[in-house]
UniProtKB/TrEMBL annotation:
Presence of keyword Oxidoreductase: no
Its biological purpose: Involved in targeting and insertion of nascent membrane proteins into the cytoplasmic membrane. Binds to the hydrophobic signal sequence of the ribosome-nascent chain (RNC) as it emerges from the ribosomes. The SRP-RNC complex is then targeted to the cytoplasmic membrane where it interacts with the SRP receptor FtsY. Interaction with FtsY leads to the transfer of the RNC complex to the Sec translocase for insertion into the membrane, the hydrolysis of GTP by both Ffh and FtsY, and the dissociation of the SRP-FtsY complex into the individual components.
Name of the protein in question: Signal recognition particle protein
Highest taxon, organism lineage: Bacteria
Upper classification of the organism: Bacteria, Pseudomonadati, Pseudomonadota, Alphaproteobacteria, Rhodobacterales
CDD domains: SRP_G (cd18539)
Length: 441
């Protein structure tokens, strides 16, 4: 796919901003990538539409093609859509015993995921967990959960033959409360397709159990059907989150995007194998890269941005070596400082500047000041920025007023500029400058 994209991108022209044509060409390929990753058709279409609006008119980073840039925008947008609010592993499990209802199609991995999560909550969060299987449909389903419970050292509700799912849920609730458990997992019966009878059963169980979380377990290899499964379960039962299983396989995980788009519910965990430890909190970055299958391009665009900044550093260094340091240079410096976590952070990084950082702090030299200084430089004319010696009283008044500040503050900025220019000159002669500017960028 990357090869195909490469071909398309080479044909794209380079210009300052992404044109509609650039975006459309690149997005045609992205659309194919989404469909190949099993993202459902309407979801892919809507997603592309949203990205088109975002991408058109954006500035193109030097040394990448417009197409590559579009892919980066797509990638970032994918991550935004995939990420829910809050940490993925933050399940609502206060007020013990908190019931967690596990729902999904047959074979999606509910029972396995139940045991994996139980193990995790026990080991990571020190919770006392009780497992209960409500699967009265499949022979040996209850035993399966009990056996897994035994393996991970977690209690399971004793099996009583002949009970209905609702009866088991009631007994499990009582047992969890009496036994002092923190968490009760209710592993429901699967269904091959969305099936009214079983849906009614899950609803009845839900009403009895009053779960704090209802997790929909979906096979990550599910394709176009993911949308139906998610919207049916969410509509009929009401889910609080999704677990995506079999992400250890070849699937590209497009189901994740489909389900996020349709339900808006967070994806909590991904299953990565059959073993009890093979579960991890959902990472949108990883799944986004996988859906697009273009991780290399994303890395390339990031690299290009870095290179661009390094080039800028080089240019500045050459200026300093010639003893040139005007207000434009100072502004670049100040803006970089803001980006790097402010004055204190920056000076702390420079050799021999630790003491100065302390002094600056006591003198009230902080980020607010950086912002005011950038504003002052902004209200100078082009000529004044290039040659600060021009600044006499009347010009100073105008500039200060333009930034809504006192002339006094402008004077301080000018003094600082002069000091810095002197230092730059000296250091420029002495060498070692390159290293320092690199650091500052
Ligand atoms: P249920 O019918 O929804 O309860 O599904 P099960 O938990 O019984 O799982 C069905 C099969 O899928 C079992 O063989 C599991 O070992 C397997 N399975 C579950 N989760 C994963 C996963 O994340 N990766 C892989 N490779 N297999 C899984
Ligand atoms: Mg099961």
């Amino acid at each position: 796919l990357s090869e195909r994209l490469g071909g398309v991108f080479d044909r794209l022209t380079r210009q300052g901003a992404l044109s509609e044509a650039d975006v459309a060409t690149a997005l045609r390929e992205v659309r194919v990538a989404l469909l190949e990753a099993d993202v459902s058709l309407p979801v892919a279409r809507d997603f592309i539409k949203a990205v088109t609006v975002k991408a058109t008119g954006q500035a193109v980073t030097k040394s990448v093609t417009p197409g590559q840039q579009v892919v980066k925008i797509v990638h970032d947008e994918l991550i935004r859509v995939l990420a829910g609010e809050g940490a993925p592993e933050a399940l609502k499990i206060d007020n013990p015993p908190a019931a967690i209802l596990m729902v999904g199609l047959q074979g999606s991995g509910k029972t396995t995921t139940t045991a994996k999560l139980a193990k995790r909550l026990k080991e990571k969060n020190g919770k006392r967990v009780l497992l209960a299987s409500l699967d009265t449909n499949r022979p040996a389903a209850m035993e399966q959960l009990a056996i897994l419970g035994g393996q991970i050292g977690v209690d399971s509700l004793p099996i009583v033959k002949g009970e209905s799912a609702v009866q088991i849920a009631k007994r499990a609730k009582t047992q969890a409360a009496m036994g002092g458990y923190d968490i009760l997992f209710l592993d429901t019966a699967g269904r091959l397709h969305i099936d009214e009878v079983l849906m009614d059963e899950v609803q009845a169980v839900r009403d009895i159990a009053q779960p704090r979380e209802t997790l929909l377990v979906v096979d990550g290899l599910t394709g176009q059907d993911a949308v139906n499964v998610a919207s049916e379960f969410d509509g009929k039962v009401g889910i609080s989150g999704v677990v995506l299983t079999r992400m250890d396989g070849d699937g590209r995980g497009g189901a994740a995007l489909s389900m996020r788009a349709v339900t808006g519910k967070p994806i909590r965990f991904v299953g990565l194998g059959e073993k009890m430890d093979a579960i991890e909190p959902f990472e949108p970055e990883r799944v986004a890269g996988r859906i697009l299958g273009m991780g290399d391009i994303v890395a390339l665009v990031e690299k290009a941005r870095e290179t661009f900044e390094a080039e800028q550093a080089e240019r500045m260094m050459k200026r300093f070596q010639k003893g040139l340091f005007n207000m434009n240079d100072l502004r670049t410096q100040l803006e970089q400082m803001m980006k790097m976590g402010g004055m204190q952070g920056l000076m702390g990084m420079m050799p021999g500047m630790g003491k100065m950082a302390k002094q600056a702090e006591t003198a009230g030299f902080d980020d607010r000041m950086l912002r005011r200084q950038i504003a002052l430089i902004g209200s100078m004319t082009k000529k004044e920025r290039a040659n600060p010696d021009l600044l006499q009283a009347s010009r100073k008044k105008r500039i200060a007023a333009g930034a809504g500040l006192e002339v006094q503050e402008l004077n301080r900025l000018l003094k600082q500029h002069k000091q810095m220019a002197d230092v730059m000159k000296k250091m420029g002669k002495g060498g070692g400058m390159k290293q320092m500017i690199r650091q500052m960028m």
